């Protein structure tokens, strides 16, 4: 599994701290990786994606901290307010109102992880975070790495990579075969494994709708509305979760 090389800070550590005038936060610097982003429609993608996830999950590294709430729970959301008069004449108001039943179906799937299932996960394995190089794939953006369940990260990856134009069952089966060969043992449960993806989706929609209506952040309204429209247009169906799980189950069983 390849990732960008860390560039040490002046003191030798991997994290440098910004001046207080710039917020005082910690930053990390990595080598630049040249190359195009991975493509779901590339014939070699299922094998490479399965190998990447299988190696990562096969390590089963202990997670030092609890999961981020973003992936595990939902904020209390007044959807009628967000999609009601406050959003009148906004370009996304009607789409959000029409999407409320689907958002509630996704919300019903959100459950906390079982503590014994938690390992260290990347948590953002998507096409834009994978660079194709002459040495193979390089996985970027490790900044969100943290506690997660292998089956939930696997489910999210399969959804992101192979459902944009309908569920690509052949690609999912090929990914799972490579995943098993690389040491991955996660099994998708259609009722639990998609909880992280559902939580992320619902939380993102709520956050962008709130931001788009917040007068204190007018400079961010356009970006929030664009993100909201994209998320609502691509809102997954629970039936899609079940279809992905069915194709994943058709792959070879995990080794004993």
What does this protein look like?
This protein folds into two domains: 1-32, no CATH class; 34-249, Aminoglycoside 3'-phosphotransferase, Chain: A, domain 2 (Alpha-Beta Complex), CATH 3.90.1200. It has eight helices and eight strands. It is mostly helical. Helix 1 (45-59) crosses helix 5 (169-181).
The main sheet comes to: 2 strands, antiparallel
Enter the CATH topology name of the largest domain. Answer: Aminoglycoside 3'-phosphotransferase, Chain: A, domain 2
As a whole number of angstroms, the C-alpha radius of gyration is: 20 Å
Content-based structural category: mainly alpha
* Tally of contiguous helical segments: 8
List the helices and strands and how they pair.
Elements: E1 6-7, E2 16-17, E3 26-27, E4 29-30, H1 45-59, H2 79-82, H3 93-107, E5 118-121, E6 130-133, E7 136-139, E8 146-149, H4 150-162, H5 169-181, H6 195-213, H7 221-233, H8 238-249
Antiparallel strand pairs: 1-4, 2-3, 5-8, 6-7
Helix pairs in contact: 1-5, 5-8, 6-7
Task: Describe, in short, the structure shown.
This protein has 256 residues and is mainly α. 41% of the residues lie in helices and 9% in strands.
Keywords:
256 residues; mainly alpha; Aminoglycoside 3'-phosphotransferase, Chain: A, domain 2; two-stranded antiparallel sheet; 8 helices; 9% strand; Kinase-like_dom_sf; Aminoglycoside_PTrfase; Aminoglycoside phosphotransferase domain-containing protein
């Amino acid at each position: 599994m390849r990732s960008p090389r860390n560039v040490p800070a002046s003191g030798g550590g991997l994290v440098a701290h910004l001046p207080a005038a710039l917020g005082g936060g910690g930053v990390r610097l990595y080598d630049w990786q040249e190359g195009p982003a991975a493509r779901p429609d590339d014939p070699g993608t299922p094998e490479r994606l399965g190998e990447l996830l299988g190696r990562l999950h096969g390590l089963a590294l202990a997670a030092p901290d609890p999961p981020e709430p973003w992936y595990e729970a939902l904020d209390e959301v007044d959807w009628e307010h967000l999609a009601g008069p406050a959003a009148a004449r906004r370009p996304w108001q009607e789409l959000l109102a029409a999407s409320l039943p689907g958002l509630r179906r996704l919300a019903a799937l959100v459950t906390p992880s079982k503590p014994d299932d938690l390992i260290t996960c990347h948590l953002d394995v998507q096409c834009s975070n994978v660079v194709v190089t002459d040495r193979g794939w390089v996985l970027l953006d490790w900044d969100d790495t943290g506690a997660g369940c292998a089956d939930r990260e696997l489910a999210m990856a399969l959804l992101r990579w192979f459902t944009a134009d309908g569920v690509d069952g052949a690609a999912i089966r090929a990914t799972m075969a490579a995943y098993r060969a690389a040491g991955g043992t996660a099994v998708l449960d259609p009722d639990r494994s998609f909880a992280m993806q559902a939580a992320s989706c619902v939380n993102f929609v709520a956050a962008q709708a709130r931001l788009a209506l917040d007068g204190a952040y007018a400079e961010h309204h356009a970006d929030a509305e664009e993100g909201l429209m994209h998320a609502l247009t691509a809102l997954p169906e629970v039936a899609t979760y079940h279809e992905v799980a069915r194709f994943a189950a058709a792959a070879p069983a995990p080794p004993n």
